[in-house]
């Protein structure tokens, strides 16, 4: 009935344009559902890491105090450094955290009050109090909440992501449970 030149070609290889469009639409739908959940999970992980890093810094500050004459350090740099350990670089924190940025958060260590008298010779001044803040580098991107801790080592949370202006402002924030 049909000659070979007019026979319909039913033995094609590959997919039709409609089939490819359906697959792409399904993949885009799955991505639209999965990506926001991934971002939220990443922010939660960054926030948990920020809290743990604050705990690490407060422990390192306490260790610094007992090792180098009773005062607290003047900066994160004093808690970092490379061996051998000294009062200006106690090697209590890894270099990334001592630089002030880790896991999507910016960390700042501020000494508070007057320096401790009788600092050991050759050592920078140490202090009786400090304030540590952890603020997301991008609020809503790398984290939602900011955190702060002061000399008693209680960690406080600010769900707006704002940096605590001082020790009094930090202590007014709700503590983490």
Mean pLDDT: 90
Helix content: 25-40%
Task: Spell out the helices and strands N to C.
Answer: HHEEEEEH
Beta-strand percentage range: 15-25%
Q: Specify the structural class.
A: alpha+beta
Calculate the terminal CA-CA distance, rounded to whole Å: 84 Å
The largest sheet has its strands arranged as 1-2-3-4-5
Low-confidence stretches: none
Molecular structure report:
This protein has helices at 17-67, 95-99, 167-172; strands at residues 101-102, 105-115, 127-136, 146-150, 155-158. The protein is of the alpha+beta class. It has one domain (15-172). Strand 4 and strand 5 form a beta hairpin.
Short description:
The chain is of the alpha+beta class and 177 residues long. Helices cover 35% and strands 18% of the residues. The protein has one domain (15-172).
List the SSEs and their pairings.
Blueprint: H1 17-67, H2 95-99, E1 101-102, E2 105-115, E3 127-136, E4 146-150, E5 155-158, H3 167-172
Antiparallel strand pairs: 1-2, 2-3, 3-4, 4-5
């Amino acid at each position: 009935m049909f000659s070979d030149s007019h026979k319909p070609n039913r033995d094609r290889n590959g997919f039709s344009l409609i089939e490819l469009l359906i697959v792409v639409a399904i993949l885009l739908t799955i991505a639209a559902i999965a990506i926001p959940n991934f971002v939220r999970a990443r922010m939660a992980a960054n926030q948990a890491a920020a809290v743990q890093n604050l705990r690490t810094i407060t422990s390192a500050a306490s260790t610094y105090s007992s090792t180098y004459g009773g005062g607290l350090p003047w900066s994160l740099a004093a808690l970092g450094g490379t061996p051998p350990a000294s009062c200006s670089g106690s090697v209590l924190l890894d270099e990334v955290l001592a630089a002030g940025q880790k896991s999507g958060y910016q960390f700042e260590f501020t000494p508070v009050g007057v320096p401790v008298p009788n600092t050991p010779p050759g050592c920078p001044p140490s202090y009786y109090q400090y304030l540590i803040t952890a603020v997301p580098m991008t609020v809503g991107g790398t984290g939602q909440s900011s955190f702060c801790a002061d000399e008693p080592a209680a960690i406080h949370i600010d769900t707006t992501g704002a940096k605590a202006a001082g020790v009094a402002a930090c202590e007014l924030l709700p503590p983490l449970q």
